Amino acid sequence: MSDISQRFTHQVRNRAVELYGEPLPKDVHDRIAEELEFIADSKVYEMMLITADVFKGIGLVTEDIPVVGYCEGFYVAYLLGLNGGINPLPPHYRCTHCKHSEFEHRNSRVGMDLPEKYCPVCGNLMMGEGFNILPQWGCLYKQYYSLCYLLNTDTFSAAIEAFRKAGFTWNIREEANAVIYFSDRAELRLLSTQIAQQSSTRSEWQIATQLLRLSDLTGVRLGQIPFNNSSDTLAVRNVLRQGNAFIGIQSLMDKFTEKVLMHFRLNGLYDLVRLFGICRHGIGVWFGNEELLLKNGTITQDELPVCLEDIFEYLQKAGFDKTTAIALTEQRKRTGERFSAEQENTLRSHGVPRWFISTYNKAFEMGARSRAVSDAIMAWRLLYYKFCVNLGAFYQAYLDTADINLERCWSISNGERDLALDLEGIYRNQNGCCLKDEYTLLMAKEIMEQGFALRGLVRRAIDFRQIDPSKEWTQNRERSA
Hints:
Blueprint: H1 3-20, H2 26-38, H3 44-57, H4 75-79, E1 92-94, E2 101-103, E3 127-129, E4 145-151, H5 153-165, E5 171-175, E6 178-182, E7 186-192, H6 193-198, H7 203-218, H8 234-242, H9 255-260, H10 269-279, H11 286-295, H12 308-317, H13 322-335, H14 341-349, H15 354-362, H16 369-389, H17 391-401, H18 406-412, H19 419-431, H20 438-454, H21 469-480
Parallel strand pairs: 4-7
Antiparallel strand pairs: 1-2, 1-3, 5-6, 6-7
């Protein structure tokens, strides 16, 4: 073993011992051993260690950096502080005082949604952790590892200078403030917020930029935002249950998501992860497929297979060994193939129901849970800023990163007196879209009104949630006619 790989292994294991004590729990020990075996013949050790050293040297931890769907699936990245603080282990409790841990092995939940529990050893409140992400469908798929971070302009410049001083010798390519380091099997991307704003089609980058702006405006770092069931997150969980949480977060809320939410209920972070598994990383999963299963009462919402990990876990529960379960799951991910007649017979012999086989065959593509977790965490943080920190700052950050010229919109309107009736038309005129449904109209009105208030164009913000949007829509159409 080379010196760099020895240092890598030593640093990973030491951090695990800091969190869980010795001897390490079996789940932790086995996961580390599995991932170290995956990357044993690659060159990612050096990249990960230098990245961890650079971030630490300039005072950064990745809990404060939006990580967009690349490295959430690997526990060694979590232990080195490189994956946004996303623990990919199965749901479990961990005591931060005495290091006692209890792994729940409840595959259908995430650790942050576990009920409060006090440590049986020292009596302190334990922490719920774990998103149950498998490394096979994380950032490294046997041959490739990728790290990707979005940084504020100042931090970006400091990071680039620190990497150069660290003697990062791999192939370097620079393009308009984006610096990308390559090796034959590893890749590190650092993007500035300027690049993110220019990539308007990449909604996750816009959201990540908005989060960084919110952190600057409020002084509340991303890593300080709680996820566990607690009084601090009560407002977020309540608004998720009400169904109108995504006003002002339209980059995450499109027509498809709205239709899914007609039947899919949100109660916490776990449901948010599964929602994005359906809407942003799956093809053929919902309409004419799992939507019908819910409507007919064939299965409950918690039983819906929406990510690759759900397929794998179900097959393992049915008695398939790990290798076979992975092979069957990868068949859908890599080739989009349906189960063959022979495979269906084998599945039925293991007691797999027809609805599961049909769902698998209808779904053209399912994504890894790591990508859905990344989206869910960004959405949760946005909601926390909006409902628990500062509503004005939320809309200020939104307007700073969105392409809406409010001053021009104000010049189109007839002043504050007629603003309520004009907002829908203004938003449509500015953005070239037609708002045909009540939810989108309500969302546009709240965004525009809060923006006008922030710019000092109106004296107060109108709470448009108290206005009947269908009535306003009718009045607008009459005025246009």
